[in-house]
Amino acid sequence: MSFELPAAHRELLERARQTADKVRWHAGDADAATDVDPVMREALQASGLVSVTVPAAHGGASETVDPLAVTVVREAFGGVSAHLDSLFAMQGIGSYALSVAGSRRVQEEWLPRVLAVEAIAALCLTEPDVGSDLRSITTTVAERDGELVLDGHKSFITNAPAAAFFTVLAKEEAGYSLVFVPADTPGVTVTSGPDLIAPHVIGEVRFEGVRVPLDSRVGQPGQAFPLVLQTLASFRVSVAGSAVGLAQAALDEAVAHTTGREQFGQPLARLGPIPQMLGTCWMEVEQARLLTYSAASKAAADPQGALHWSSMAKVAATETASRVADRCVQMTGRFGVVTGSTIERLYRNARPMRIYEGGNEVLLGQLAKTLTRPAR
Ligand SMILES: Cc1cc2nc3c(=O)[nH]c(=O)nc-3n(C[C@H](O)[C@H](O)[C@H](O)COP(=O)(O)OP(=O)(O)OC[C@H]3O[C@@H](n4cnc5c(N)ncnc54)[C@H](O)[C@@H]3O)c2cc1C
Predict the structure, then answer these.
(1) Residues in domain Acyl-CoA dehydrogenase/oxidase C-terminal (predicted)?
(2) Which of 57, 112, 239, 337 is deepest in the core (most CB within 10 A)?
């Protein structure tokens, strides 16, 4: 089997690369930011690329969100700036449930602003005491006097300090619902932080007696998990795209350094184990890219049916990015550990990828269950 990107996706990758190249000069500053960076936001707005994260019915590029399209854009962005990559991806991840099942009022009022990157989106699942085990959440929503009332505390929420709205997972009676909450609703409090090893726009969001109209519930009462699953099925594989882009960028840095610097009268690239490290990195990046493209094209055809492929690609590519970035730091010697160098930034940016959008161990456990499930 061979896998080549379709022409439309090659063009999209090229467009995204051009967008990222224009802001490469600013990537170091943006990746140190803990609030949305205006240069990156403007570049994203000018590119129009957020349209690949929203279905055509709401102004997006294709009938349903195309995971391969999101993946190739993230490949281009992930190799240049984690901040740009996150800003792009979260517009889709934070709004997807609204596109699929939000009320007409919410869709018409908010999705055009998401597309234009005027309204920054956020998805609130995690809580101080709840990470992987989402069914243990304690945030609640209840119908009272013709409104929805939300109480709880969400933690580690990407974009929280800048978000215009939150899509919130909450317990509703015996089930779970998703609720759309504008950030300026009374009772919503946002605090920035914590500071991460790879700085990120992140924060804590508290909901205290927050009242929103009934049509702020996304989909039917108790139907949150199918919607969360649909979001993951469309976007999880794109984390792999970002990881492949990052790994390739780290390898490019190592190639430039090891061919440009001589020790013992020879380029580093010809010395001792360096050729093996370069060859191994190249092989692993291409392995990860192939699995990622293949999984994303399967997800494009059937997002939920291909979720195990998306999980495999996410684990494989993010583990590859960490390994490759680590080797590339080693190959660049002391220059690779200088704060502010590109390789040092890529090394730090690789680390959180193995934790968010499904911890890699959790995904491997789910894969094992799928693999060993008795045939019906
Ligand atoms: C940069 C960043 C951005 C984030 N953005 C968001 C966001 O926008 N919205 C949001 O809701 N959350 C967000 N999160 C939180 C993220 O979703 C959680 O970190 C993730 O779900 C894992 O939860 P946890 O960190 O509490 O780890 P835990 O669930 O406590 O897990 C700790 C470790 O144990 C492993 N583990 C857990 N359960 C199992 C199991 N059953 N089998 C095997 N291993 C297991 C995990 O893989 C992990 O290695 C973000 C996190 C980071 C780092």
Answers:
(1) 225-371
(2) 239
